[in-house]
Amino acid sequence: MESLKIFDNFKFSELNEDWIQSVWDGEFIIYNEPPDEYLIFLESEDMKLLLNESCIVVKAWLQGCASQSEAENYDSEISWNTLITKDIKVRALLAILGYIIKNGQSKEVDEETRQLCLYATSLYFVLLAIPGSSAFNVFHPNLYQQAIDTLKISVERLQLPVKKRNKSINLDDLNITDELNETIILLPNEKEALIQNLNTIVCGLIVMIKSFWFKDHVQSLDITIHGLIEVTKIEDDYMISQYFNKQIGTLNVSLPQNAYAALKELCNNKHGPVEITITFIAKYVFPHLIYNSMDAHVKIIANIREHTINFLKDLLNEYEEEAKTAILTLIQRMMLSCPDRLETRQKQANVLLKLFEICNQNIALEVFKDLMLLSYHSKIAFRLFAQEIIGKLLLESFLMNCNIMDTLKIKVKRALFAIVLNRCMDCSSMVRGKAMAIIAEFTEFDSGKDKEIFLTIFKDSDVNKQFFTFHDIKDSLFEDINLLPGSNILITMLKDRI
């Protein structure tokens, strides 16, 4: 408990009450400059060390009390009530942290001020981990959002693209003006230091999430998830495929790995319905999965997608019912985000197939029904994209490896093949051409089961059986229906296409 006297070193006596009150009256949005004497202290190395040491002290206090075997002792020792009795000036402390965080997020400040911002953010998250942070108004929505913004701004610095020097000519006075957009290109050692500082912040956020309740702070939950999703885009050589192990929440684990762990910690009913939390997650990982949405190296983007899909798979395995709606909605959004270019459509279809692979049978069947609907969409682009996806499902080994029963696999394949046959009569030449190409490849396939599907057309006694309508096809996954047309009808249709 003696260690908590470190907060006396913040020299709150040098702050006048009017300045502190102005920060609180401004709802942590408007900050006036603190008194000159205190501003000198803020800019000194002592403040940086004090913020870091205070964070270490509070973490040690939390861990020390948590390790005690008697829960009653834990509850009585660790709380904001204990800190208040120690005469710690909470309002002054939060005002100072808010000022440091806000000031350090400006693009014009130097590196030392940015470092202070990172340390202040880390300390604020750890302070929120102390029970009673809501009751004693330590949690403030605006201050919390500024702390989360530190994560987002830091991610932007790590991913900042190199901008070219722009030169423009003013035709009015023929003066050449040189417009140089300031860009901060981090050196390798600076990038490594920033990643480590961010990892420290996320570790503190994990400590906070374990004790803080977001149930009554839905907007703050939303921005927390958004901030953590942004962190998962950071390239880290230490990133491994296994996200969760006993070292989670420590600096021994990579930054993206800790960010994923924090997201999983949020999937707890004390933070609100898990279904809502996973819906927020799905909303913010969507840009990770569609093409032309991230400005990064191809290999980095591929790694981000792989880790994102693995994380979604973990959520589905652990929260099957709660995650179902979010995953379905995510896949639907991706289907409706069909790229214009052929190469991009093919790549997008590959990502969708990887998402299909993590789905269990119930979700997979819903996905296939949505794919059937997309095949009959009023817009040509959607029908063409649907054929791209169906082609990969039919011509690759996905259906044989997906998580549905063997009998259903055959039904799905027949239904998809029937849709392709129907699309050969599409009003769009592009859709017809894609459908015909799929049939050509499908009939040349070496798979005996695939050939059997096609040969049933010529074995059917009713050679004049017409093509089934969409309404018949969409219900075929749950009924035993032969969707394929008679041989005479098929041959007539193919002759018309030539």
UniProtKB/TrEMBL annotation:
Task: List GO terms (cellular component aspect).
Answer: condensed chromosome, centromeric region; condensin complex
Spell out the molecular function terms from Gene Ontology.
Answer: histone binding
InterPro entries from the UniProt entry: ARM-type_fold (IPR016024), CND1/NCAPD3 (IPR026971)
Share an example GO biological-process annotation for this protein: meiotic chromosome condensation
Question: What SUPFAM superfamilies does its record include?
Answer: ARM repeat
Under which name does UniProt file this protein? Condensin-2 complex subunit D3
Question: In which organism is this protein found?
Answer: Melipona quadrifasciata
